Amino acid sequence: MTEPIIENMMLLDCTNHSSAQENVAAHINVAPHLIVIGGTSGLGLALALHHQQLGWQVSVVGHSATKINLINSQYPNIVTYNCDLTDSAQTQKLLDSLSDISFQRLIYSAGSYTNERIRQLNHADSDKMLAINLQAFEQVFRWATEQLKYQKKLQNLSLDLAEISRPSLICIASIAGMMDYPYASLYAKSKSAMIATASAYRLALAPYDIQVNCIASGYINTQALRDLNDGDASHKPFIISTQMAVEHIMQAIDEDIELAIFPRSMQYITRALNYLPKPLLNFILRSKLDKNK
Prior knowledge:
Number of helices: 10
Order of helices and strands: EHEHEHEHEHEHEHHEHH
């Protein structure tokens, strides 16, 4: 029901591409640190820049060397990493390189999408969506959980280490994951699994006072979405700007909303659609949401 906002993660090794990395350790206790997985474009980059404006240190992970070079030139204080999330070994290498960095918030904003309403799912598309939308997400969240729990333990043992910000894990799912019908796409089912996984992590990490939030948005007017729709996504129902999406997400984090669904109009429509007979719902989703060619 919704296309991704994030780029496909398909390149190179997990290496640090920014000189700002050398300054991270010196500033750990000065400002909170954010890591954005899938943060070199679209909503992920917008969230990274918003946190930077608030005074956070920011590290972003992406696949495109071109986008990483652009960030390095325009935002030299952002630390950048290149990683192919479809490769679990390469992803683990990235996580190992991040293990010595103290951070207070991680946002998993990476995603892969294939429009299964108009295109037959092939092996490559299937492998990529499963790897990025679910497997890498679980790998990153498992690692981040252990890191934050360890940092909380250090904070409890040290009276000199001030807690700057409540630690938090955020994942960007999709309102497509809220659709309950047997003909759902792999994209929708993987986002549904992400929503359920985040809910389980939220319950498990509550005793550690680690916050977990999941975002299930409707259509966001990013370049990636426009590219998927011949340069114009204005026909998408209740589409919102990236800036408005950032405002919704930050509000959800501040208010510690477990599952933030927006815009509200899409939330109501999704609930209504779930009451329809499944064959009718399948027909609507396959015939009404894509731009006529």
